[in-house]
Each structure stands twice: as structure tokens, then as C-alpha cells.
Design goal:
Blueprint lengths: L2 H7 L49 E5 L4 H12 L3 E6 L4 H13 L4 E5 L5 H15 L4 E4 L15 H22 L8 E5 L12 H21 L5 E7 L36 H8 L10 E4 L7
Parallel strand pairs: 1-2, 1-4, 2-3, 4-5, 5-6, 6-7
Helix pairs in contact: 2-3, 2-7, 4-5, 5-6
The protein binds nicotinamide-adenine-dinucleotide and magnesium ion.
Magnesium ion (MG) binds next to loops.
């Protein structure tokens, strides 16, 4: 068969060229960063994600659902038939409004819950509001995260260490602990861990440690909740182009090279994560429990 002819017609089938090989300019945003100001812009599936009713009638809470991976998950869940609640920081209202518009354009509800997850009472309030305003909860995506690249251990302040652990680990615990009583059999929890959980960068000591904690917590919780019919799974993304990277998530001078070292040769786009989160929340993955699904462009994984 003439490969060139096939290529002409189906270039979108090639994962190397399906999304652009980006070379982001050096840039810096204040925490928490906005998709609206990211250069280049990301693909969260706005124009491309097509749903097929895989999450019909679901009620989902997605933390960090305003931007990046969480935003792609919110769009995909809505197009699969779910109502969603998104949590984010008040400074991210602009990104959140955009995602809410897209969710509502599907005829689904979008509950917007700005709140800081580093506080236990806020985590409990996020769950309370999601349950009250969605009329229940059966899909929880714990995705909010903090990542600050730091060259030397001596430069990691107590404040940074504490905030990273609070955002990535304590908030996960507080939100899930508050949510479990609402989760009926058939419900799912998906955690956003990272390839950093088992392949830590020398500049991400505190962050990588929290992602390992999330991976292990998720696997243990999966065993505890499986008999109750609630499945817990984990997604471990590789380098994905999102605002996280420009709020000091990567050293600024390394941004142009972001993701180019992966076997697939480019950074991932948020939309490339959405199918993993859809699969793990949908009933078709009923025998997938405590799994870490790696979406990383070919990096080693256990
Ligand atoms: P992102 O910046 O778009 O999303 C992170 C979100 O976390 C923010 O939108 C913000 O709403 C939320 N957040 C941070 N601190 C918060 C706080 N104190 N209170 C409430 N919300 C808070 O970036 P992203 O890359 O889409 O990140 C989503 C998840 O994916 C994170 O857990 C991140 O660790 C994980 N991840 C990302 C990558 C990557 O390369 N982008 C790789 C592996 C894992
Ligand atoms: Mg954001």
C-alpha cells in the first residue's frame, strides 16, 4: 500500500503530528496562572472532543477544572453527558467562566465553586456545594495541584513545602473524606498523579513526593472502596502544556524545550488526557481498580 497516500488522507492518525510540536516562548505568570494568557494556547478539546454518551446522567466534581487538564476533563465529561462542578481559585474566574460556557453549551449544568483547597473547611464546603447543587455526586476528579521547580533543596522554603503538600496531599484527603459518604455504588474517583511519582526530576523534590503519595493513597483506597462498588484509579500525565508550567512549574529558560525529550517528540495537550479520565469514570472500566494509567508520550513507567 502506498504509505504516502495513506498519510495524506489520515495525518490526524499519526500521534507525532496530531498535535503541534510547540516551542513555548519564555514566560512567567503569577500563581495560579491563566490559560487565557498562555502562549501558545492549549487544546482542551473545545473544537475536537466528541462525546458518545459514556457518562450520561453523571454528576462530577473536578478540582482545578478551570484550566489545563481539569478543563479538558470538564469539557469531555459534559460532552459525554455529565453535569459538572468545577473548583478553582478565585483568581481563575476568567478561565472558569470560559469552561462553564462550554459545558452549558452542551446543555449540561456547570456549578462554579471558587475556593482554596489548602484549607480543610473549604474542601468540605466544595463537596457540600457540589452535592447540593448537582443533586448528588458520583464522579470525583481530584486534580488541583501545585508545582514549583527549585534548583536546590536548600532553596525549598518551609512555606513552599507546606503549600505543595497541602494542595496535593491534604486537599486530596480532605475532599475524598468528605465525599465518600455521598458515593453510591457505581461511583468513581480519579486522581491526577504524575510521571514524577516514580521518575522524579531533581528540581521537583517536594512535588514528586506528593505525586507518589497520591499514587499510593489511590491504590490503597481502591482496595478499601472496591467492595462498596466505588472504583478509585489514577492518571499519571507526562509533560502537558498547561498554566502549571509557567507559574514556576518549570525553570523558565527550559520552557522552549518542554516535552521535546519524550519518545513522541513533543509536549502533550490537555485534550490528550481527557479520554483516560472518561474511561476511568465510565462503567465500561468496571474491572479497572487501583490502576495508574500513564499518559506521557512514552516515558518509562512501572
Ligand atoms: P493547571 O494549572 O491548569 O491546573 C492546576 C489547577 O490547580 C489550577 O487551575 C488551580 O485551579 C488548582 N489549584 C492550585 N492550587 C489551588 C488551591 N490552593 N486551591 C484550589 N485550587 C488550586 O495545570 P495542569 O497541568 O492541568 O494540572 C492539573 C493536575 O495535573 C495537577 O495535579 C498536576 O500536578 C497534574 N499534572 C500535570 C502535568 C503537566 O505536565 N501539566 C504532569 C503531571 C501531572
Ligand atoms: Mg487554572
Amino acid at each position: 500500500m502506498a504509505m504516502t497516500q495513506r498519510k495524506d488522507h489520515l495525518t490526524f492518525d499519526n500521534p507525532v503530528t496530531r498535535h503541534p510540536d510547540i516551542t513555548p516562548p519564555k514566560q512567567d505568570q503569577d500563581m495560579p496562572g491563566l490559560d487565557a494568557e498562555l502562549e501558545p494556547q492549549t487544546d482542551r478539546g473545545e473544537r475536537t472532543y466528541r462525546g458518545t454518551g459514556r457518562l450520561e446522567g453523571r454528576k462530577a466534581l473536578i478540582t482545578g477544572g478551570d484550566s489545563g487538564i481539569g478543563a479538558a476533563v470538564a469539557i469531555a465529561y459534559a460532552r459525554e453527558g455529565a453535569d459538572v462542578a468545577i473548583n478553582y481559585l478565585p483568581a481563575e474566574e476568567e478561565d472558569a467562566d470560559r469552561i462553564a460556557e462550554l459545558v452549558e453549551a452542551e446543555g449540561r449544568t456547570c456549578v462554579q465553586i471558587p475556593a482554596d483547597v489548602t484549607d480543610r473547611a473549604s474542601c468540605e464546603e466544595i463537596v457540600r456545594r457540589a452535592v447540593a447543587e448537582l443533586g448528588g455526586l458520583d464522579a470525583l476528579v481530584v486534580n488541583a495541584g501545585k508545582q514549583v521547580a527549585t534548583e536546590s533543596i536548600e532553596d525549598i522554603s518551609d512555606e513552599q513545602f507546606d503549600l505543595t503538600v497541602k494542595t496535593n496531599v491534604y486537599a486530596m484527603f480532605w475532599i475524598i473524606r468528605a465525599a465518600v459518604k455521598h458515593l453510591e455504588p457505581g461511583s468513581t474517583i480519579v486522581l491526577s498523579s504524575s510521571v514524577q511519582a516514580y521518575s522524579p526530576s531533581e528540581t521537583l523534590l517536594d512535588y514528586a513526593m506528593t505525586k507518589a503519595a497520591m499514587n499510593t493513597f489511590g491504590k490503597g483506597l481502591a482496595k478499601q472502596l472496591a467492595p462498596k462498588g466505588v472504583r478509585v484509579n489514577i492518571v499519571a500525565p507526562g509533560p502537558i502544556w498547561t498554566p502549571l508550567q509557567v507559574v514556576d512549574g518549570q525553570p523558565t529558560d527550559q520552557l522552549p524545550e518542554f516535552g521535546k525529550g519524550q519518545p513522541i517528540g513533543r509536549a502533550g495537550q490537555p485534550v490528550e488526557l481527557a479520554p483516560a479520565y472518561v474511561f476511568l469514570a465510565s462503567p465500561e472500566s468496571s474491572y479497572v481498580v487501583g490502576e495508574t494509567l500513564n499518559v506521557n508520550g512514552g516515558a518509562d513507567s512501572p
